[in-house]
Amino acid sequence: MRVVLCTTTYLPELNGQAVFTANLAQGLAGRGHQVWVVRPGAGLRFSQTTDGNVKVICLPAVQLSFIHKDLRLALNYRQPLRRLFEQIRPDVVHVQDPSPFCQCAVREAKRRGIPAIATHHPGPEIGAPYFARLPWPFKPGVEAIGWRFVARHLNRADAVSVPSRSSAQMLAVHGIRQAAVPVSCGIHLNEFTPLSENKRDETRMQFGLPADKVIGLYVGRVDVEKRVDVLIKALAALQDERVHLAVAGTGASLPQIQRLIRQYGLENRVHLLGNVPHQHLPALISASDIFLMPGDAESFSIATLEAMACGKPVLAAHASALPELVGHRQNGYLFQPKNPQSAAEGLRWLLENRDRWKAMGQISRRRAEQHRLENTLTRYEALYRQTRPQTAVRRPSGQALRRPAFRPLMMLAGILFVLFSLLYVSAPLTASAQVGVENLPPITLESLRRLIILTIEDENSLYANGGLIQALLEKGEAVQFVLLQPEHKANPGTAAEEGAADANGEGLTARERIRRWLEELGIPPETVDIFEIEENKINQWYQEMREKWQSFDVQVIPISK
């Protein structure tokens, strides 16, 4: 069988879709099928490589790193896809996401009478992590448009697959007409096995993990929807020096996580390992004691399944597909999503029941055996064959595809999304000096050091520069907010300030209002500090800060109205 797999992400990128697509491609090729993977490349030229017996075709693309580091947009893909289909003459086309080039592949397959199968990977937060930077007022609308966009794409396919039962139920709620087929992503069960004691200590030494501590391990992206902050707060609430946390992965929220670690004084108990190559994950997982999965929008979680195959008890959020893998107090503990106290209680329960870890690990292993990759390959082979004769309909060559009535709306939404991303990241990268700091030159991100001072004047100035704040945090800068106060509001909490807050009908202090604005911008308030300074004392305060922090530079960025 000639199979074309279309995806925007593929190994060595580390995320669930990339790992699944690589496993599927290599597994099908190992069974004698001819497999082509089509994906956006890293440059503006068409190229072809190989991954074992799999041919990987890279379309011309641009890297949209200002939205997310792993996001690529294929360019000029229609003609290359048509030529590719002419040369390959695939028996089935299987797309992994609703990106424009994947939708084009589905339309081209339908035009040629080739069965098209679409797999939906995202969980309930369909825009994560790409919509994370949008301000809150725009998010619901963009999410609604996004779901309609996805529904239109999936309804065009001849068959739809999802990695879990919860994902199938989710699609039914969002208007997918045909029943989605749950097919586990599967794992290489023989690669994920428990380690011997000597190998365990050797692996911990290799990753800089203490041999005499209980290691809770998280593997995955460090983005907002993954809720790694919940683990940091739970570790702080637990107050048990025996327990350490290891985080294998990177992402847009890593600077906020680093700030939380410093805020709670957990530098010696949290180990940030960065991106760990996939071939090293089996040893790392086996060398840990407890696997942690705090995300509340998991459509499946390959990482959790790999940990279960290694015989680990799992602490996971009671949300989305995770309860399909983890039985509460059977092979782990399910805590309330987004609740650090509940996660801390789960850790405490696991510590108190350490004598049950071996039995829990055995249950995890038995459950993982049901998801071996061989079963997944068999299911997809059957789906490919069943779909081909039953649902593929050849369109007359002269008949044009009916274009969606809301395509202009989709194009407008895409343009607005890119514009917002550019505005919130690129536009505020320079700032002119004002309000008592006229002597400072314009500042760019390249010239910044560790302590960044943002002078905030009002709500509009904060909203308009949310992208600058996010960009600073993502670069690992320590951000402080300076709320400039007129002389009669010099002291926070005075009657004058409280009266002003009451006049606004909210009863909030200026500091509390900034905290609220940060939350609406999707910026964790605990990642910043706030000072309240009189306008006529800003220069004096600025000099004092420079003297206080002699070990590194202090930069001030005034934010205009």
How much of the sequence lies in strands comes to 15-25%
Count of alpha and pi helical runs: 20
Reading side by side through the largest sheet, how are the strands ordered? 3-4-2-1-7-8-9-10
Measured as a percent range, the helix fraction is 40-55%
Rg, Cα atoms, Å = 26 Å
Total strands: the figure is: 20
Q: Outline, from the CA principal axes?
A: globular
Distance between the termini: 62 Å
CATH topology of the largest domain: Rossmann fold
CATH architecture level-2 label of the largest domain: 3-Layer(aba) Sandwich
How much is the average pLDDT? 77
Q: Please identify which CATH superfamily of the largest domain we are dealing with.
A: Glycogen Phosphorylase B
Q: CATH first level of the largest domain: which class?
A: Alpha Beta
Helix and strand composition category: alpha/beta
Unreliably modeled segments: 389-401, 420-451, 486-505, 549-555, 557-561
The number of domains is 3
Biggest sheet character: 8 strands, mixed
